[in-house]
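For consistency, the fold was encoded as tokens, which produced the following:
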Amino acid sequence: MDPNRLETPETKVPSAGVHELSDLELVVEILRKDRKATAEFVARCADQVYGYVRRRLVPRGDLVEDVVQDVFLAAWQNLEKFRGDSSLRSWVLGIACHKVEDHYRSRLREFQIDESDGTGSDEPIALHDLEEMIVRRQAGQMAQDILADLPEIYSTILLWRYWDGRSLREIAAETGRTEKAIERLLARARSQFKKRWDERRSATRR
């Protein structure tokens, strides 16, 4: 098994007969270095991991492959810890969540955040409305398009705050920023998101 060579979601796994391995059985076979079991593991989880990471890394689609590789590498390195309390797919998605948060944390640490007053608009927008715009199925594509168009720092803070439900205090602690700085950054990001959302809705009504 070569964990540095991840097969794509299109991987086709040869039929293993009438019996499909359970998650725990599959893990046992992988730990025994069975190549077919490794291929089945990738095929069983890859589509969901790719989709999850791709949505969460907006607008950095160029980083999806690297993060997915990190997810599966971490999964392989920790397979012995899998106890079957949840499905194998859910377990791997949990790892993906942590890897995406690592990305958010590192990116927000790199950006210069203006901690002074007077920049950007604090135009109010109901938080539950914004969350719905981002994650609800009926608005999903337009929200994803807007997030992709926003500066990366804005899309990152919006996704971390509203998709993950992380508090301002948590984000500030994770990034080494003040809570006030994160609050101002989030206000500017909300304002820009709402402006572009309203512009697109107006354009579709013409």
